[in-house]
Design brief:
23% strand; single chain; Glutaredoxin; 8 strands; 6 helices; alpha/beta
Length: 172
C-alpha cells in the first residue's frame, strides 16, 4: 500500500508543471543565458494575458511543418477582429544551426512582422518547464486570462486547424 501511495505521489508530481488544456501553466521566464525577446529583454509567460494568443514553439529544423496553418492564420486577420496576438518562440537548442544565424533570421522576421512577439529559447526552457514537444513544431492557444485552450505538437491537420480557428473566434 505504501509503495502504491508513493508511486501515485511521484506521478502526480511529475505532471505538476506539464502544459494542460483548461489550466494556466506555471509561470516561466526566459532571459539572459536562456534567451529572451529578440528585441531585447526577458520574456515572461505572465505576458500571455489580455489577448487571445497563438504561440508557435518551434525547432528551427521543423519550421515548415505548420506553414499551412500559419498562412491560414494570417488570412483570418484576427488582429482586426479583436484582442489577438501571436508569439513565435524558437527552440534554439534543438538544432545544429548556429545561434548567430538563427538570431539574424529572427531579427529579419521581427522587422517583417512587428506585431508578432519573437523569443529565443536557448536552453529548451519550455520543453523542461511545460513539457512541450522537443525537436517539433508546437501550437498553443491561450485565452485572455492565460489559460491553455488548445495544444498540438506536430503537424496540424485540417481538423486541428478548424478546431483552432473555432477556439480563437469564440474567445476574441
Amino acid at each position: 500500500m505504501k509503495l502504491k501511495l508513493t508511486l501515485a505521489t511521484l506521478l502526480a508530481t511529475l505532471n505538476l508543471y506539464a502544459l494542460t488544456v483548461g489550466e494556466v501553466p506555471k509561470n516561466v521566464v526566459i532571459d539572459k543565458d536562456n534567451g529572451g525577446l529578440v528585441k531585447g529583454g526577458a520574456w515572461n509567460s505572465n505576458m500571455l494575458k489580455d489577448k487571445v494568443y497563438v504561440m508557435f514553439y518551434v525547432d528551427p529544423d521543423e519550421k515548415d511543418v505548420n506553414e499551412a496553418f500559419s498562412q491560414a492564420l494570417k488570412k483570418k486577420e484576427y488582429r482586426k477582429k479583436g484582442d489577438f496576438g501571436s508569439i513565435a518562440i524558437i527552440n534554439m537548442a534543438a538544432t545544429w544551426k548556429p545561434n548567430f544565424a538563427i538570431e539574424a533570421i529572427l531579427k529579419g522576421k521581427q522587422k517583417e512582422f512587428p506585431k508578432t512577439i519573437y523569443v529565443k529559447d536557448k536552453e529548451k526552457v519550455l520543453v523542461h518547464e511545460w513539457e512541450l514537444g522537443d525537436d517539433a513544431s508546437n501550437i498553443v492557444i491561450f485565452d485572455k486570462t492565460g489559460k491553455v485552450l488548445f495544444y498540438k505538437s506536430g503537424k496540424m491537420n485540417a481538423e486541428d486547424t478548424q478546431k483552432a480557428f473555432k477556439i480563437i473566434e469564440a474567445n476574441i
